[in-house]
Write a structure and sequence with these properties.
Blueprint lengths: L9 E5 L3 H12 L3 E6 L12 E4 L5 H9 L3 E4 L6 H8 L8 H8 L1 H10 L7 E4 L2 H11 L3 E5 L9 E4 L5 H7 L5 E5 L5 E9 L5 E3 L3 E6 L2 E7 L5 H17 L4 E10 L2 E8 L9 H4 L4 H9 L12 E8 L6 H5 L4 E5 L10 E9 L1
Parallel strand pairs: 1-2, 1-4, 2-3
Antiparallel strand pairs: 5-8, 6-7, 6-8, 9-10, 9-11, 9-13, 11-12, 12-15, 13-14, 15-17, 16-17
Helix pairs in contact: 1-10, 4-5
């Protein structure tokens, strides 16, 4: 793509969850329509999109019709089958690009990419066989975390190793699928940077946020993070380095550990990110609008925050007491329209402005 999309163009979104929903809302504010492709019925994004295709990712006819109906395609999650992307790319641009997606889909590929840029990660080793597992334990040591190389999120697809004796059972629990063993990191806090890169190479980063997890799920993101000016600059600079190395277009989330030896990259997410939800109430241009601007070929917006914010995820039944959630006039409430409040399910979030 070289020409900016005109108002009225249609943006295709693979995935119909809450991120697709908020992308659709942002797109509509800019005068675009959205078309959601989602295998599941009644997705949250479908409530606010102009069109929804309900079909599996191996339905080539449905994929072809979807691509023909849109002007550009983006996605709200990483684990899109390769065959589906192979077809879609022959019809319309897919942004962010395939390299970014392939890099983030596999933890070993991702860590090799990051360390190849000269960035630091936790000690890690590939595990595909029992011999690999034994060698990884000897190289990385314990305690550690064994993670599946693909399809893990919100604490799923991983198992902690307290000692070397835990390794074989941990791998069995993960189905003996290809994994990565990561060494534990001595970190004082976890932070994340939401960055964006336009089609002309311009980069805009939001201020780093400080994350707290509960049961493997992000609980809060606080802006500003408790960082020195040098640490803030380092986090933003390395995010820009990642964006440029991938020739990226769109918004990315970069999770980092703050350690005595400097910043370590935990992982990258080639999409809008949960830890960037604070931008909806803390900035004039939030991460969702920024992503739409980038993939549409429009100039990026200003990433400066006008308020300090604490973002809190609403999990399960935490989103049901609307009276309590709306009683504080300083809280921005964002509900995802999900039908059932399951345990561990993200149902919405609140942004508390700290003036």
């Amino acid at each position: 793509m070289t020409n900016p999309l005109p108002v009225g163009a249609t943006i295709g979104i693979l995935g119909g969850g809450q991120l697709g929903r908020m992308l659709s809302v942002a797109a509509s504010r800019l005068g675009f329509t959205t078309h959601i492709y989602e295998p599941g019925t009644n997705p949250p994004a479908g409530h606010v999109a102009a069109q929804v295709t309900t079909a599996p990712y191996d339905d080539l006819n449905a994929l072809r019709a979807f691509a023909d109906s849109v002007d550009v395609i983006t996605y709200e999650f990483e684990n899109i089958p390769t065959a589906a992307l192979d077809l879609l790319e022959t019809i319309r641009p897919v942004l962010p690009n395939r390299r970014a997606l392939a890099t983030s889909q596999d933890r070993i590929t991702e860590k090799d990419f990051l360390t190849g840029l000269g960035l630091k990660c936790a000690p890690y080793a590939n595990v595909e066989t029992t011999a690999d597992l034994q060698a990884a334990v000897e190289t990385v040591g314990t305690p550690g975390i064994l993670k599946t190389r693909r399809f893990g999120y919100d604490g799923k697809g991983q198992s902690r190793l307290k000692t070397a004796a835990d390794a074989e059972q941990a791998w069995a629990d993960l189905g003996q699928t290809p994994c990565v063993l990561e060494g534990f990191v001595d970190f004082s806090r976890e932070i994340s940077v939401i960055g964006a890169r336009a089609q002309d190479g311009a980069v805009v980063c939001y201020d780093p946020g400080e994350n707290v997890h509960r049961d493997g799920i992000l609980h809060t993101t606080t802006i500003p993070a408790n960082l020195s000016h040098a640490q803030q600059m380092d986090a933003v600079i390395l995010t820009g380095q990642i964006l440029n190395a991938l020739d990226y277009v769109g918004v990315v989330g970069v999770e980092l550990f703050v350690t005595p030896a400097g910043l370590l990259v935990n992982e990258i997410a080639p999409r809008v990110h949960n830890s960037g939800h604070w931008t909806q109430n803390g900035c004039t241009i939030d991460q969702f609008e920024q992503h739409i601007r980038a993939i549409a070929g429009w100039p990026l917006g200003d990433g400066q925050r006008h308020s300090d914010v604490v973002m809190t995820n609403l999990i399960g039944t935490e989103a049901t007491d609307i009276q309590a959630l709306t009683s504080d006039p300083g809280i921005g409430l964002h509900l995802y329209g999900k039908a059932e409040a399951k345990s561990g399910r993200k149902m919405g979030h609140i942004n508390k402005l700290v003036r």
